[in-house]
Amino acid sequence: MKQAGEKIAMLTSYDYSLARLVDGAGIDVILVGDSASNVMAGNETTVPITLDQMIYHAQCVVNGVDRALVVVDMPFGSYQGDSKTALDSAIRIMKESGGHAVKLEGGSEVCESVERIVNAGIPVMGHLGLTPQSIYKFGTYTVRAKEDAEAAKLMEDAKALEEAGCFSVVLEKIPAELAKQASESLNIPTIGIGAGADCDGQVLVLHDMLGITKDFSPRFLRRYAEIGDTVEAAVKRYVEDVRSVEFPNEEERY
Ligand code: KIV
C-alpha cells in the first residue's frame, strides 16, 4: 500500500462484537492494543495487562475478523527481559490467539528480539515516540522527540527497526515534520497516532474515536461518534421503562 501511495487505516479492537463491525466496515489493520489495559480493564496505564489477558483479547478479535490483518501488542514484561523470552511470548501469541503479527515498543534495545521473532516467521510491527509502557520513565504523556537529540535518536531507531526486519512502525505523538522525515526515509510503512498526515497510515483507539471513553481528548483525537452518549440515553430509557412497566409490552411477551 505504501508503494502504491495508498494510506493504511488501522484501529484497535479488543472483543469479537466490535472487531466484527470494524472488519466489516473495511479497516485494513486491527491492532489488539495493550490499551485494552486502559479502555477494557480501567487501569491507569498499560503496564499491568498480562500476556494471558492479551491472548484472550486477541482470540476474541480473531473470531470476529474475516479480512483485516490482526496485529497483537506484546504486553509490558513479555519481551524486555531477553530475546528468548521475547520469542517465547511472540510464539504464544501466534499459537494461542491466531493473530497475524505482533507489535512491541522500543528502538535499538529491542532489535535483537525483533530479529529473533522475525527469523521464527512472525511479522513484527515496531512502536516509537511516545511508548506508553515506559510511562514511568517519561513521567508524562506529552509529545516526544521535540528536541534535536531525541529526534535524531528516533530516526536511528526507526532505521534500526527496519533493518532488524519490522514490517511497519507506529509513530506516536511526535512532531509532524519528524514523522514526515521518518516516513520518507523508511521503506516500511509508518502508522501515525498524533504524528501528522504524512505517515503512511493512521491508528486510533476505537473507544476514543467512538466517544465511548469521554474523559480523554488529546488534540490528535477526532471523535467520529458519540456512542457514550447514545449508550447512556438508551440505558436511562430502559431503566425508566422497566420502572414504569412500559417494558415489556403485550408484543414483547410469550
Ligand atoms: O495499545 C494501543 O492502542 C497502541 C496504539 C495507541 C498505537 O499501541
Automatic annotation (TrEMBL):
Pfam families referenced in this protein's UniProt entry, alphabetically: Pantoate_transf (PF02548)
EC number(s) from the headed UniProt entry: 2.1.2.11
Main location: cytoplasm
Matches recorded under InterPro entries: Pantoate_hydroxy_MeTrfase, Pyrv/PenolPyrv_kinase-like_dom, Pyrv_kinase-like_dom_sf
SUPFAM superfamilies in the record: Phosphoenolpyruvate/pyruvate domain
Active site annotation, chain numbering: E172 (proton acceptor)
Keywords: Coenzyme A biosynthesis, Cytoplasm, Magnesium, Metal-binding, Methyltransferase, Pantothenate biosynthesis, Transferase
Chain positions recorded as Mg(2+) binding sites: D34, D73, E105
EC class of the enzyme, as a word: transferase
Required cofactor names: Mg(2+)
Cellular component aspect of the GO annotation: cytoplasm
Record's keyword annotation contains Transcription: no
Transmembrane segments: none
NCBIfam families for the chain: panB (TIGR00222), PRK00311.1 (NF001452)
UniProt similarity note: Belongs to the PanB family.
Function: Catalyzes the reversible reaction in which hydroxymethyl group from 5,10-methylenetetrahydrofolate is transferred onto alpha-ketoisovalerate to form ketopantoate.
Protein name per its UniProtKB record: 3-methyl-2-oxobutanoate hydroxymethyltransferase
Organism listed in the record: Candidatus Thalassarchaeum betae
